[in-house]
Every structure is written in C-alpha cells, then in structure tokens.
Amino acid sequence: MIPFQFHTFWRLLRTPGPMEAASLRGRLHRWRFFLFFPLFQIVNAGMLSLDHLLFRFRDQVVSKPLFIVSSPRSGSTVLHRALLKDQDRFTSLALWQSIFPSLATQVPIRWLGAIDQKFGGHLTKMVEKLQDRAFRNSDRYHRIRLEEVEEDEVIFLHACASELLGNAFPIPEIWKEYRHFDQLPDPQRLSLMGFYRACVQRHLLLQGQGRRFVSKNPPFCHKVHSLRQTFPDAGFIMLVRHPAESVCSLLSMLDSFRSSVGLKAKDWVHPRRDPGALDFSVDCYRHALAALDQLPPENVLILRYEELVRSPKVVIQQIYEKFGMDVGTGYAAELDRMQQAAEGYQSLHHYSPEQFGLTAAEIRAMIPEIYERFGYGVEPG
Fold it and tell me: Rounded distance, CA 356 to CA 342, Å?
C-alpha cells in the first residue's frame, strides 16, 4: 500500500500559498491537482496491491545500489545518464515507471508498446509529439520524457511526501517536515522508506538482470541516513557546484516552470526569488555533507561539478574504481566519446544573482562552510 500522508494533503488543500493564478490556466492547475491526484493514488494503490498476488518481488535482492545526492542543478542528471550508458552495469527507473510503480500496470503497458511497434509505432509517435509539446518550455533547462530516466523521488510524491510538490505549491512551512526526513518519527519514516524499497525491488525484478540500481535525487540529500539504513551496502556520490551557479540555475528553472502553468508570486521580496527553493538548495549542501561525513569513507565519493564538465571520463573512472567496478570495452569507447564532446562544450545559460534579487555575497553568507571547504571565491569563476 501507499503510506499516504493525509495530513500533508489536507494542509496543502487548506493553506494559502505565496503563488497566485496569473490566468484561468493557473486556477485550473490547482484544482486539477486536488481532484485528480487522490483519485490517481487510489488506482495506484489498487494496482500495487495486485503485485503482492502476481509477483514475488519481495524476494528480490537490492545489491550495492548507488545514490547520487547533490544540490539541484549540480550536474547530477548529466552524471546519472552518463552512468546509465553502461547498460550492462546499471539500471534506473524511467519517469513512466515512477509514475506507474506497480508491475501490474507496467507489464501491460510494455505489452501495449510491443504490439504498437509491430504495427508501425503510431501510438508511440503520437505520445512523443504530445510530450514535445508539453515539455517544450522545460527542455531549455532539463529534458523530461516519460521513457527516459528521471528522479525516482516521484515515488515519494505518490505518498504526498515529496518536496517536488513544492515546485507547484511553494509553502515552506509544509515542506519543512520533509526537509528533515531523517528526523521524522520512525513509524512514518520507515513506512515511506519501505515503500520506496519495494518499488526498487519491483523494478529490479522486471528488468534488473543482475545490474546495479543507480538513482539521483536532490531531495535524497535529506534522506542519507534513511537510505543507509534501508540499503546498508549502498554507495553515495555527491557532486558539488559553486552555490551561486546552482542556486541561480534552480531559481531560473522554477520561474520558467511556474510561468508555463500560469502561476506568479504575490508577496515575495522579488518575483523570481523563491525563499523556499533558496532554503532547499542551501540545505541540500549542508545536510548531504554532514550526513556523508558520518559514513564509512569507502561508501562515499565527493566530486566537483567542474571536473565532471571538463573531464567526464576521468570522473567516471574514479567512480568505477571507488566502488569496485571494471570499465568494459564497450563502455570505454563511450567514455572516449563523452570526453570528446566535453572538450567542445559551452553552456548556453548564464545567470547572475541580481536577476533574482540576490547578490553573490548573500549566497556565500548562507553557507560559508561550503565556500571554505571547497575553496570557492564569492563569485563563480
């Protein structure tokens, strides 16, 4: 069953947030959520219950998973997708699998897809066109497609226990509870982690085939101890980027998303300065490093974003060596291609803190320990 957090849902329903609808589309966005979200979770719960009758997923071993925990916009998506190009070594949840976590749903969808391909793939092409239209605004910052790997924090969203909902409902007093996930009461915390583990087991049963599960989620920065307790042999990777760059990139992405669904801030100091997102980003640095510092060194690898962008081949080789893996011949050739692409890479996005009512000095003052530990100057450079 889904350990649905009814208290969070009721608070969302009753608490006026700092966003207001800029159009009819914005008003419909809010009420569509409150109408369809609980109905969708009722269907999901029913299908998840069927899994217990149809599949022996509880016997599935989850061996040495890897979790990439980093502040948002720190290169974790790039690293996650790069690792998954080693298809013989790693597996991860595609977005559609996180949205429909039950095997009783996934298996028929796979059958439907296979049948569609035999008859020309017309349904697949139609879905691709719909996605291109739906996600055209977000593609500038972060490509999203149902069939591609994505943050499996979506699993916690089903339980109304994820700060992902804060993107649409930025109400800090509600999400503060999950900002301290590792300090939640044990019954609540363990039930949520048990649900997540069961979803990982389902995935590995269906398409693990001896591969290692790898996941990336910024909200997992607040779940490090719970992940360690749930998966005792897990490895953790953290990417660190200059905070002024990652914070501004996050604020820009969220501003674009909210504009696309017809929402605007009504009482922020600056219309693009989301205080909840700002606190979340800063807390990710602080919580993740504090938690990782308490783990055995052999289970942790901390890397710099700049190194990944400049030398992806070297960084990934470090990961393989750290966690006792060999780079196969096929993947070695893929790493060479990644390195060649990196040598000609130039970012298309440039931000300044002033665009969001901030200064670089203000961001440094929020987490001076990160600047000191990694030798960052006040300004990125």
Answer: 29
Beta bridge partners of 348: none
pLDDT tens digits, 277-331: 788 889 999 999 999 999 999 999 999 999 999 999 999 999 999 999 999 989 9
Give every CB contact of residue 243 below 8 A, 6+ residues apart in sequence: 71, 281, 282, 285, 363, 364, 366, 367, 370, 371, 376
CATH of the domain at 101: 3.40.50.300
Note the pLDDT tens digit of each residue in 137-152.
666 667 888 888 889 9
The domain of 211 spans 6-374
Closest CA to 68 of 275, 260, 284: 284
Is 286 domain-assigned?
Answer: yes
Alpha-carbon span 68 to 236, nearest angstrom: 6
Question: DSSP string covering 265-287, please?
Answer: ESS-SSTT--HHHHHHHHHHHHH
| Cβ-Cβ contacts under 8 Å for 356 (sequence gap 6 or more) | 248, 251, 252, 270, 272, 273
Q: Which DSSP symbol is given to 366?
A: H
In whole angstroms, give the CA distance from residue 354 to residue 13: 34
One-letter identity of residue 75: G
Per DSSP bridges, beta strands 19-21 and 235-240 are unpaired
CA distances, 47 to each of 40, 100, 103, 174 (Å): 11, 9, 8, 29
CB 187 within 8 A of CB 253: no
Residue 171 lies in a domain: yes
Beta bridge partners of 304: 240
**Sign, CA torsion 130/131/132/135:** positive
Question: Looking at the DSSP assignment, which residues form a beta bridge with residue 300?
Answer: 236
- Helix, strand or coil for residue 66? strand
CB-based contacts of 115, cutoff 8 Å, min separation 6: none
Contact 228, 292 (CB under 8 A): no
Contacts (Cβ under 8 Å, ≥6 apart) of 1: 45, 48, 49
Instruction: Count up the domains in the chain and report the number.
Output: 1
CA 353 to CA 274: how far, in whole Å?
12
User: Does 381 map to a domain?
Assistant: no
**Residue 21 three-state SS:** strand
